[in-house]
Write a structure and sequence with these properties.
alpha/beta, Rossmann fold, 7-stranded mixed beta sheet, 10 helices, 20% strand, disordered N terminus
Length: 254
């Protein structure tokens, strides 16, 4: 008769312990950004797959930093980065120009960030339109962040990706950090799948980034999914939102 309440209590204890273990090492300011009530419901619903607390903690994002985010999409990470760096920091959201082959009435990609730039809660976000093939960036930033874009840099006409990496290197302060998150391709496949499956071999990313002077710091496996066999296009319903992803951290030497 007494065992059921005891087991329930023990279950609750272990559940709390598991949560504490999962969030161990996550600074309070990152936890506050993830739990920020201003975040859209659609963003919050993606947290289970994107694991933002662990991802931001691994990146080492801190209050007061200047961050350049390359190709922010609709701003999932932009909002998080903005709240972490706070009023003394700044987030430069670097958005590509509209594709030349886009429909005449297609909106500029920067329009996707209008809900952020029109919200005083994110007053430290500055949107800049760029060309990846002729990239210019804010200088002396603490961190450059790009998520699920690196493979597409290989699909940009007239762009040598190591030239882009060099611009990133020059934009960072000595000791600055470069974070690359992307969909993993089959090991040894190189850039074979960048335009078809929209994946890239992480070994290629490491080689390219290190070739311009960066030092590889480490890799997080928090977004690793062993059930993804790397053969499906990342937009296919069977893997969309659940692809095997790598997070690579590089540092510009001091």
């Amino acid at each position: 008769m007494c065992r059921t309440p005891l087991l329930a209590t023990m279950g609750s204890f272990f559940a709390v312990a598991a949560i504490a273990t999962a969030t161990a090492g996550v600074p309070a300011y990152i936890g506050a950004a993830v739990n920020d009530k201003s975040r859209p419901t659609a963003d919050v619903q993606r947290d289970g797959d994107r694991k933002p607390a662990s991802t931001l903690a691994f990146a080492g994002v801190k209050p007061g930093e200047q961050i350049a985010e390359l190709i922010p999409g609709a701003g999932y990470y932009t909002r998080l980065l903005s709240v972490v760096v706070g009023p003394k920091g700044k987030v430069y959201a670097l958005v590509n120009r509209k594709r030349p082959d886009a429909a005449a009435d297609a909106p500029e990609p920067a329009a996707r960030l209008a809900p952020i730039t029109s919200d005083a809660h994110y007053a430290n976000v500055v949107v800049q339109t760029i060309s990846a093939a002729q990239l210019t960036m804010p200088q002396n930033v603490d961190l450059v962040w790009t998520s699920l874009n690196y493979h597409d840099f290989h699909n940009v006409p007239d762009l040598k990706v190591t030239d882009l990496d060099k611009v990133v290197f020059n934009a960072l302060k000595p000791g600055g950090t470069y974070i690359v998150i992307d969909h993993a391709a089959e090991a040894g496949s190189g850039v074979r799948d960048t335009s078809t499956l929209h994946r890239i071999d992480e070994a290629v990313v490491k080689q390219e980034v290190e070739s311009v002077g960066f030092k590889f710091v480490g890799e997080s496996v928090v977004l690793h999914n062993p059930a993804d066999d790397h053969t499906a296009k990342v937009f296919d319903s069977q893997v969309r939102g659940h692809t095997d992803q790598f997070i690579l951290k590089f540092r510009k030497p001091r």
